[in-house]
Amino acid sequence: MNFFNMSKLVSSKLILATLVILLPIGSALASDNNEIPKRYTDLQKDGLKGPVKSCMDVMGQGFDLTITYNKDRMRSNVNVGKIFRYEYKYDEKGRVITDRKYDFANKTATSYSDSTKYVYKLNESGFETEIISQNKTGETTISEFSDTGLKTKQIKINRLGDIEDVTIYSYNEHAYKTSQLVYRPVEKTQIVSLDKFKLIQKDEYIYNDDLLIKILRTYDKENSYIYKSYRYELFDKYGNWVRSYEATANKKEETKVRKIEYYE
Questions:
Q1: How far apart are CA 186 and CA 184, in angstroms?
Q2: Tens of pLDDT along 173-200?
Q3: Where are the domains of the chain?
Q4: Closest CA to 135 of 153, 151, 112
Q5: Which of 39, 45, 5, 34 is nearest to 129 (CA)?
Q6: Is the pTM of this model over 0.90?
Q7: CA dist., res. 195 & res. 229, Å (int)
Q8: Which residues contact 45 (CB under 8 A, 6 or more apart)?
Q9: Which of 111, 100, 146 is nearest to 125 (CA)?
């Protein structure tokens, strides 16, 4: 289905969305004075402070997650071990206009596998109110934002124009995400009407006094949930954690380590 026809298919009042991103543990919208800015950088979205150049979540077994940032504090690429890499291209306003996914082979990125293009709708102040993205297979994500730049809902549409799922987000007074609700249509549809959708997952986030994730509860469609708790042991000079611990019910506590590099 044509990219721009897709944007007409689902009306803007029904399709609020957010782009999928990879977040380190304890991520939230960080700012030096806890004020809600008009437009967030990727560093803020990823809960990082200071002139971060790269942040690696050490997973082991070739699955280390490394996010590299440019000097405008936006992501330049994301590496998932030696599996794949995302690269981002920006316009003069600092908005993503394309991203590309590369598959790794023989320790180098040898094949371009996917590309996502972005179209922005702006309000009178020039801030994004809606982002429409589509990859080369025709899958579309449409995002709508609040006046303060928070993503409030997400809708994913397959290449046939059918809605795959809808995600709704809530935030606290610090603009930190407190809940995430995922709905799926009971039957095929191209119209968002949540009374005809089923709640399949609910995430709840609780933060400590330093506004780092303390507890994460994930409920499934049967209303049973997975409980995770987090504690943080070591921080660097900018206040970013470099060692933390994650505990899941009835499982041994896991150590999480990050390696962070900064611009000089």
A1: 6
A2: 888 899 999 999 999 999 999 989 999 9
A3: 3-215
A4: 112
A5: 39
A6: no
A7: 33
A8: 21, 23, 27, 29
A9: 146
